[in-house]
Amino acid sequence: MNDKAQGLIHVVEDDANVARLITGTLERFGYRHAVFSSGGDFLRQLRAQAPDLAILDLGLPDMDGMEVLQQLRNRYRFGLLIATGRVDTYDRVMGLELGADDYVVKPFEPRELIARVRSILRRYQPEPQIDDSSLRVAAFAGWRFECATHRLVSPDGVEDTLSLAESQLLTAFLERPNQILSREQLLSGRDVSALDRSIDLRVSRLRKRFEQGGHSGKFIKTVYGAGYLLAATVSWS
Length: 237
Description:
The chain is α/β, with parallel strands linked by helices. It has two domains: 3-123, Rossmann fold; 132-236, Arc Repressor Mutant, subunit A, CATH 1.10.10.10. It is 36% helix and 21% strand. The strands form three sheets. It has a five-stranded parallel sheet, with helices on both faces. Strands 9-8-7-6-12 form a five-stranded antiparallel sheet, with no helix packed on it. Strands 10-11 form a two-stranded antiparallel ribbon. Helix 1 (16-28) packs across helix 5 and helix 6 (164-175) crosses helix 8 (198-211). The radius of gyration is 18 Å and the shape is elongated. The chain starts with 7 loop residues before the first strand and ends with a strand. The model is unreliable at 1-5 and 189-195 (pLDDT under 50). One of its GO terms (cellular component) is cytosol. Residues 135-232 bind DNA.
């Protein structure tokens, strides 16, 4: 894949030295970029142009990075990579819960940064339209899921729109119901570290979608030491 065709990356980082490290790495691999030293400047720029991916520091001078994440996921759809020096696992977990696609901890190796950037950008590439399979609708356990619109409809008719990552995860389950799927299978062969448990957090977020409104997400089962399983009958139309 040609990195120069990947599009624009916004770097939201108030530490000038870290920003230079990130942008220098991006330049070496052929990525275009813009740098913002505050959350406010970044959010204002989005009104004119949204990037293909944003690398976001959580410790910004004018607002908390978590607040920026919430605003982004409520209004925009592009890749989000957290770059943080915070050692508390809670911050990283909360960032993923709020919709970030991945995180990298400072100090980081340039190649690790690029590997995570590439992985996220691949998720947001439009899928080739070969047939009408993307128009399929899955029915399971009283729920309906529309692949093309990412729309999830509850048994009592309440509609919700899933994020891209959530939709890809649910589709993987629905295409192979009642089968144990490993973390690698659920990531569809994307870059994954043996120590990276972000897929577990994505499954947790997906379960919470089903639990809204007093429903149950227990049909997504954890098979300890093996992966996850969707325990439901699925019909496609």
